Amino acid sequence: MALKVGMCTAMNAEMFTKLETAGIASAVDFISRDPEVLSRELNVAYKDVCSIRRVLLAELCAHPVSALKLYEDALSSLTILSTGCSVLDQLLDGGLYTGELTELAGDTATGKTRICHWCAAAAVKNDLSSALYIDMGGSFDIPTILDAMAEVAGDQAAVQSRLRRIKCLQVFDVFQLFALLEKVMADSSKEELPSEWGNLKLVIVENLPLFIYPIMGANAPYNQGILSRLGLKLKQLAGSLSVAVLVTNSLVSMYGQGRTDQQRKAALGRVWSHVPHNRIILNRVGSDSAGFPRPTEVEATLVKSSHQQTPFTATLNLADRDAST
Amino acid sequence: MKTGKATGPDMISTEMMQALEANMSESRQILTLSGSDLANLSGLSCRDAELLKTHIASQLIPQGPLTALQILKDESLQPWKLSTSCPVIDKVLKGGFLSGVISEISGESACGKTQLCLQLCLSVQIDEKNGGGAVYICTEDVFPSRRLQQLIRFYNSKRRSHKFGDNIFIEHVADFEGLDLCVEKRLPALLARGMVKLVVIDSVAALFRCHYTAAQMMERAHHLSQFASVLHQLAAQHRIPVICVNQVSANMDGPGINSVTPALGLTWANQVTCRVMMSRVESSEAVEDQQPNHTIAKNFPTYRQLSVLFAPHLAPARIKVYIDDTGMHGIGAIT
Amino acid sequence: MSYSREITTFPLNPVVMGKLLQVGFNLASSLISLSPVNISLSAGISVDEAKQVLKIVQEDVNTCLQISGECVAKSAFDLLCAEQEQEHIVTFCEAVDSMLGGGVPVCKLTEICGAPGMGKTQLCLQLAVDVHIPEHLGGVEGEAVYIDTEGGLILDRLVELARSAVLHCQQVVEASQSTLDQSSHALTVDKILGGIHCFRCHDYYELIAAVQLLPTLLTQNEKIKLVVVDSLASPFRHNMDDMSLRRRLLATLAQSFLRVAANFKTAVVLTNQMTTKIMPREGDSHHIPALGDNWAHVSHNRIVLTRDCSNNKRKASLYKGPNKKEELCFFQITLKAVANSWLCVSKLFGSSSKLELVHVIHGAHHALV
To 5 degrees, how large is the angle CA A47–CA A52–CA A54? Predict the structure, then answer.
């Protein structure tokens, strides 16, 4: 929130200019400064600083909200987006919840990208909603998305309208990703609607580790900082715009403690593991002999969830998403 | 290349380069730093750090890319080929063994691998343009000096007043310590003098096959690729052919009962650029293929077969060869 | 543009960022109204650094996104329209072409994996030649960058391939009795060889350097439509004990390749070796592409070349592809060259070998079909 002249009696034009020259433009800037130091530095009355501080705090601080109110809010803004796959919907207690971050983790060719396509296709079924597909590798694939929209395949106009509401973006590093998320948030919070992004309901970020690994250098605190900042940003996006966020992650082997490399966990480490609300691990069923076509059955295990009991395993078929096994 | 010399875009100051230099031994290591690490060390923003990397990269590859046409016209940019002194075999190999890469000759025992290697050691001395001496590292058997002397007698006629025997450096190694010492210390020193233009290792399989149990496969793979990387470096740096002799092992998946495959598995195969295999052929069948114009080939005991398994520039092919006191000779393609 | 963005989300220098955070500048808004001198005084950084910071923070999001080419949001519908114009570089091996939907796709990463001697390098050389095929014959009429890390770029072979490509193109032109004067566009061996830009890299430093130089090179030469790296695996399989370094370098390279592919509209073809994976549970082993699991996520198409045990033929399978139909297919590159076929891979191998290889030939060029 930006500071404005006349917010309160102490906030006059003179005070405002003084604050501005000191680089204090937002309420957060103001509150994060020590009032005594501020009054000394800017040569203003301590009393004034304190009174502005009180007003700002009163206006901005979080109020306790009753659970009932929360429930009502949730009912009014919550949407459950189908994943387009009955098995996954069941696994996720209905589908992707807006305001939540869901992670799909799996090895290569376990259907992460395909499931993302299903979700995107399902999200734009509703005439008003749109989806954003962010990815470094350009993995968005037209045949797959058309396939996922098979139920309206005959209706050219419907397909077109749905396709138009899926936006795809290739970004190549984590800072571009930040810039993009910022832009989406800023655009969508503007008054005039619809913004460039339409009525956004689903944001997909593909292959998150690829964004993170290149910055993983010797400077561990910095890297962890970026990673947790990214987590916060995505959650903030989910919360403030009331969209569902879906990210894909890879798996890494767990070393040490006499483990075999059969046991695998989602990549990106501890810091990240706290971020997603829901996490599904995908595994190919059957022996995985390289170079040969494998069965299309994938075992999806819900390992972290805010609705369901975990672990919860279901088997889905990548070739036929409606088949339940 | 030292970092101190780096000068380039404005934002790269001498002090900065000195600060970087203090942290690493070579400027090319800058390329492996992540953007934030480099920014940390240099004080640049992440984007300028990227420019710095590009600058270092252009220093590391100062000439930039060459077009294939340029390489074609300039022979010094292309690998040269080590002739086998036999026109038939050379034809199959399109001129001989490539320099700058590792080539492998594999086969069962007594099928002529060592013969071919000895022959290469001599023919490298005939090549006046690229040739020179040879290093022969024995790990399996004692170096067959008598056979070499026999061959030298024949080769003396090809290059008179040249002491063939004096330009072959023989090393016997019996264990890994010896091999590592030889390949990592003595060989580079010898090659640095520029007289040696061929390295033969007979054989790589012996040591690597017997010193590891099945449980130590990871360790073996690691050691093998390290060993190969030293050979690669030497081959590329001195532009010489490196010939490795390999044994064979039974091929479980292949067609036929007697099919064999070169030993040491995929780890080694990935390191080899050209792979040649030798084998013995039943003599009764071989006699029928005898051609009248090969007058020398009268008393050969057995036919051998030389097959090209893979090479980037060669088609898989097989020819029959025989060995007599003047060396190994090819007869013709087996269709 | 909103200035409430945290400064930690900007690509700032970590040291400078730390200093700024210490004195309470945690939002872009708190910096934007200040002069560089003010910032430098309060945060204890130099004026130059402060200028840098301001420059980065003030940069519009749009310019930040577009700084490296077109990062404009496209709707799936735009992509559908673009799909029709998707260019492919033909391999002239019918099976492989159809498996990839018409050849190696431009703007995408294609990975070719295989044990030694399976034809990875042959496929790469063939592609480097094929990228030159003129547009009127259905090619992309481009040039190629060839990054060779294994010494597999042998000129003899390249010349051979170029010759037969030229010959074939001539035949196609004659057969079509085209009235157009194509002589000015005629393909020559020299033109092909002159359009293949080669880097020879001996270790991963040189490979990274070459990749670092790609954007400059591709900006200067817009004709380049193909980047080949043969092989990506070998520099990373020697002397790489530090696995986290390897992981980071590979991710960085992947980032660069994807950026190059998207921004310059080039196809990127990488070769990878195979490695043995021992399954602890079953106790047996099988071959999988090297470079680890994280790399496996990067490429769009992954072709695995193997030899069929029963009949010694080579086959290619699309191990990973976005489209489900392809993923499930099992392909065999047909054997036995057609007589008088022009494609050298097969001509060369087929005529003299019992191994009965490889890549058969497209009898007629697909442009004429």
Answer: 95
Query: Which range (A43-47, B126-130, C332-336) has the least confidence?
Result: C332-336
Residue ranges, CATH 1.10.150.20, chain C: 7-69
In the structure encoding, which two tokens stand for residue B95, read together?
């001129």
Nearest 5°: phi and psi at C113? Answer: -115, 150
Chain B: closest CA distance from residue C80 (Å): 34
**What Rg, from alpha-carbon coordinates, does chain B have?**
24
Is pLDDT larger for residue B187 or for residue B217? B187
A254's CB contacts (< 8 A; 6+ apart) are: A261, A263, A264, A265
Distance from CA of B161 to the nearest CA of C (A): 35
CA distance B5 to A135: 40
Write out chain C residues lying below 8 Å of A185, CB-based. 2
Query: Please, which chains are in contact with A (at least 3 CB pairs closer than 8 A)?
Result: B, C
DSSP annotation of B309: E
Identify residue B12 by its one-letter amino acid code: I
Q: What is the DSSP letter of A81?
A: E
Question: DSSP state, B181?
Answer: H
Q: What is the dihedral of CA C338, C339, C345, C350, to 10 degrees?
A: 90
Are C217 and B315 a contacting pair at CB < 8 A? no
Q: Are strands A297-304 and B317-324 parallel, antiparallel or unpaired?
A: unpaired
pLDDT recorded at residue C62: 55
Q: How do residues C325-354 score in pLDDT, each as one tens digit?
A: 444 344 333 332 222 223 333 333 322 222
Q: Which residue(s) pair with A105 in the sheet?
A: A249, A281
Write out residues 117-156 of C within 8 Å (CB-CB) of B: 117, 121-122, 125, 145-146, 150-156
**What is the residue whose two structure tokens read 């921004």?**
C263
Task: Give the pTM.
Answer: 0.84
Helix axis angle, C204-220 relative to C243-263, nearest 10°?
10
- Whether the per-residue pLDDT at C212 is higher than 60: the answer is yes
Report pLDDT digits (tens) over A170-220: 888 888 888 888 888 887 776 665 667 778 889 999 888 888 888 877 777
* Helix runs in chain C, H state only: 14-22, 28-32, 36-43, 47-58, 61-66, 76-84, 94-99, 120-130, 155-176, 189-194, 204-220, 233-237, 243-263, 292-296, 324-328, 344-352
How many H helices and E strands in chain C? 16, 12
Answer yes or no: do C150 and B333 touch at CB < 8 A. Answer: no
Q: Contact, A313 vs A305, CB < 8 A?
A: no
Q: Say what the alpha-carbon torsion angle A306, A307, A308, A309 is, to the nearest 10 degrees.
A: 60
Enumerate the residues of chain B whose CB falls inside 8 A of the CB of residue A215: 34-36
Is residue C9 within 8 angstroms of chain A, CB to CB? yes
Q: Is B46's CB within 8 Å of C209's CB?
A: no
In the prediction, which pLDDT does C278 show? 65
**What CATH number should be reported for the domain whose range is C78-362?**
3.40.50.300
Quote ipTM for the complex: 0.84
Q: CATH 3.40.50.300 in chain C, residues? A: 78-362
* Angle subtended by helix axes C14-22 and C36-43, to nearest 10: 80
Of A73, A84, A156, nearest in space to A114 by CA:
A84
Q: Does domain C7-69 have CATH number 1.10.150.20?
A: yes
Give the chain B residue whose CA is nearest to the CA of A223.
Answer: B36
**Residues C169 and C187 sit within 8 Å (Cβ to Cβ):** yes
C25: chain A residues, CB-CB within 8 Å: 23
- The neighbouring-strand residues paired with A282 are A106, A300
Tokens of C78: 């735009």
Q: In this structure, are strands C143-148 and C196-200 parallel, antiparallel, or unpaired?
A: parallel
**A119 Rama class: left (phi>0) / alpha (psi -120 to 50) / beta:** alpha
